[in-house]
Design brief:
Structural class: alpha/beta
Shape: globular
Number of helices: 10
Distance between the termini: 45 Å
Largest sheet: 9 strands, mixed
């Protein structure tokens, strides 16, 4: 039962597109473990053509459904959902459809945001649904970014994922919070422009968190709440479409969020590093992913023209300097966040 005498502060919005099986497996956990005095569970449907809507009306009649006419992608789908609910809920949680949650998972996030007015967004600890003893790739225990723009996490650096032994159980200010379970102030989301719809999917939450910080807000990880993410619910890690989106969107993110002169230097280094990634795919004869990198750079050159305003603050090259994660990981063997 999700109704209460007082409207809760938080809209927990699950974006769905043809995810009937994921909803059937994961939604019961979210409905059962979301404190109705804190949050309202909502499914925003991106024009599904499978049995998602039938499942929702039959098995989850108390879950509010916001229906879109077509698939707007992750970014624009959430933009439309947040705009729809922002005047009713001061906080929004963007929750992936392949996330299971523990009892009263939402309360620690809500309490943290209420007691820290300087924080614009936060995330819980993200554990693996299949292997709950370890962190999950997409977000782990808080996201960071290195001097070349490569994202990594407290608990996950590139392909190395740590076991959760309580080593990261302190709340910590981070650079980005995962879109798998992102809590954000509704008005801050709208003021920042929301997720960049041109990204369609992947890295759009890092871009948003970067813009939040440029506007003076902080981003934190709050491990007192933890959830379990399946991961790969939309695209497998080796899928060329995912490779394309990750490479293209990372370039766009650097271009739009750095001062113009700094961005040019950073992007030059990234082109060299991306060439190494392309060469690795060529050597292993993975032509599909090698081609995805070429397309990503080609489309970036076209899309960057739409961004004409650049910040004066450089949040990437700070003092003390951010690490070079590629060198640390591959040359020095530093494969854990605390190293």
């Amino acid at each position: 039962m999700q109704q209460d005498n007082k409207r809760p502060d938080v809209a927990v919005v699950i974006l769905n597109w043809n995810g009937e099986k994921l909803l059937e497996e994961f939604l019961p956990s979210v409905v059962a473990n979301t404190n109705p005095s804190v949050g309202r569970v909502i499914v925003a449907d991106n024009g599904s053509t499978d049995g998602s809507l039938t499942l929702l009306s039959g098995r989850f009649p108390d879950v509010e459904v916001l229906k879109f006419d077509r698939n707007y992608g992750f970014a624009e789908g959430y933009n439309r959902a947040v705009k729809h609910y922002a005047d009713r809920y001061p906080y929004i949680v963007l929750l992936n459809s392949d996330v299971a949650v523990d009892d009263d998972w939402l309360s620690p996030l809500h309490a943290f945001m209420e007691s820290h007015p300087e924080v614009g967004a936060c995330q819980p600890k993200i554990l693996s649904y299949r292997h709950p003893e370890q962190f999950e790739y997409a977000g782990a225990c808080g996201g960071f970014i290195d001097r070349n723009g490569y994202p990594y996490c407290r608990g996950r650096v590139f392909a190395t994922v740590e076991k959760d032994m309580g080593q990261y159980d302190e709340p910590l200010r981070t650079f980005w919070a995962t879109g798998a379970a992102l809590m954000i102030r509704s008005d801050v989301y709208l003021e920042a422009g929301g997720l960049d719809a041109d990204f369609f999917a992947h890295m759009e939450e890092i871009d948003l968190c970067w813009r939040l910080q440029l506007a003076g807000w902080q981003v934190w990880a709050v491990p007192q709440s933890h959830v379990y993410h399946l991961g790969g619910g939309s695209l497998d890690a080796s899928n060329p479409r995912k490779t394309y989106l990750n490479f293209r969107n990372n370039l766009l993110m650097l271009h739009k969020n750095l001062p113009l002169s700094v961005g040019r230097r950073t992007l030059f280094r990234r082109r060299l590093l991306d060439t190494l990634a392309w060469a690795k795919f060529v050597v292993t004869m993975d032509w599909a992913n090698a081609g995805a990198i070429i397309r990503a750079h080609s489309d970036f050159r076209k899309m960057r023209r739409t961004y004409t305003s650049f910040p004066s603050s450089d949040l990437l090259h700070t003092d003390p300097p951010r690490p070079n994660v590629v060198a640390d990981y591959y040359l020095h063997g530093r494969k854990k966040w605390r190293r």
